[in-house]
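Recall the central idea of this unit: under ordinary conditions, the amino acid sequence of a chain determines the structure it adopts. In this exercise we apply that idea directly, starting from the sequence alone.
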Amino acid sequence: MNVMSSEKRKYELRVRADRQAATRERIAVATAELHEEVGPARTTIAEIARRAGVQRLTVYNNFPQEQDLFAACQQHFRTEHPLPDLSAAFAIDDQGERLEWLLATLYGWYRRTERMSTNVRRDRELVPALDALMKETADIELARLTDALADSFATRTRDRSEARAAVALALDFWTWRRLAKEGLDDAAAARLIATMVCCV
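Accordingly, the structure predicted from this sequence is:
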């Protein structure tokens, strides 16, 4: 009798956990859709709840901290639109070719995620919790990539800061967006910027 009761209890807990996970996923999906459509600054909890098919209180209960909600949204979006593997670039000996390949790959991802990337980067200064998350995730990732590339361009200690600044500018989303608005495709934009960085 006790064994059956224990098994039933485990089953009920498992079902409850599955339901909660599904609810959290619906909320994350709804949040990501709204961030892509109108941006984080214009997304309300009421609209997230309506789109996810839950009550506002359910959103707050599942994500008590705003940054937790943004993290779940980011995880969902990155699962749907994974960052490209850029590690292959570092097997290319020529530093100009390495940077050009990496930029073309990264710029392609920027193009595929342009709407979300624009909204998130535009709104981060308006939403402190989003800015905090970006500093802990995307900013750190980009800084590590920048440092790894800058090291290959800096031949003297005094060149390090200029090399890093040039690489950071090359990797920046807004650099790609400016070039895209000028009509350059990703390959042409990558070639132009890589040439400029090599000149620096």
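The chain has two domains: 2-66, 87-199.
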